[in-house]
Amino acid sequence: MPVEIKVVENLDFSFTSPIEIEAQTVKRAIIKGVLLAEGISRNGNLYTISEMKKIAESAAGVRIEIGLTWKGKHARSASVGKIIRAWLDKQARKIYFVAEIWGSIARKVKKGWGISIDGVAKQASYVVMESGRIVTKIKGLILAKVQLFNLGVRGKTGVPSAKVTDVKIEESMRFGKQELTNLELKAIVSALVATGDI
Questions:
Q1: Is 3 helix (H, G, I), strand (E, B) or coil?
Q2: What is the distance between the alpha carbons of residues 75 and 20, in angstroms, rounded to a whole number?
Q3: What is the CA radius of gyration of the chain?
Q4: Which position among 1, 30, 139, 156 has the lowest Cβ density within 10 Å, counted as fewest Cβ atoms?
Q5: In this predicted model, what pLDDT tens digit does every residue of 27-67 receive, in sequence order?
Q6: Any idea what the Cα angle at residue 56 is, between residues 53 and 62, rounded to 5°?
Q7: Concatenated DSSP letters for 64-120?
Q8: The pTM is what?
């Protein structure tokens, strides 16, 4: 049975919509690089393949900050991104990563910028190397953040190969809206029918 729609002319209709559309251009950078390599870092930390596998598995979602923190001497910066994915390449003996960077830093980050990891090793131990050097063997690392910095300003990374190897800037439009209830949707459709728009 067909539905009959009655049209009421000259009906005053006022509807305040809960829809809030916010459109803005968002710049973000997708960066790729080396998070960590096997061996001894410049600050005397020994990273083994077995520990690196665990670090890679726990890296997704870890925040990225700009600049370095050295024993509390540098104030904590706001997050400028996060690790999207990380994996251990056993042949290369490195952890590679893909991360998203946003805000004004997205336009500044370049290939070659340094990467440094920051965390707490719950089961670290001291090891004496054949050369006689005492190093800290990292075990049970809880990765707190990744620090991104311009090597030209700061100098060197703890692990020489830990750096950004690729940067891709993306421009996108972001739209945000609230969900409509059935009653609100019916009111909008009724108004459109009343004005002859549908």
A1: coil
A2: 37
A3: 27
A4: 1
A5: 789 999 999 999 999 889 999 999 999 999 999 999 999 88
A6: 150
A7: EEES--STT-SPPPPEEEEEEEEEEETTTTEEEEEEEEESGGGGT--TT-EEEEEEE
A8: 0.69
Q: How far apart are CA 137 and CA 66, in angstroms?
A: 27
74: phi > 0 → left, psi -120 to 50 → alpha, else beta; which?
beta
Task: Identify residue 178 by its one-letter amino acid code.
Answer: Q
Cα gap 86→106, rounded to integer Å? 20
Give residue for tokens 């596998």: 53
**Is it the case that residue 139 has pLDDT exceeding 60?**
yes
Q: How far apart are CA 99 and CA 65, in angstroms?
A: 12
Residue whose tokens read 């996108």: 172
Total residue length of the chain: 198
Q: Residues 76, 125, 45, CA angle at the centre, nearest 5°?
A: 50
> Using CA atoms, how far apart are residues 64 and 115, in angstroms rounded to an integer?
10
Token code pair at residue 83? 């690790």
Q: How many CB atoms within 10 Å of residue 114? A: 23
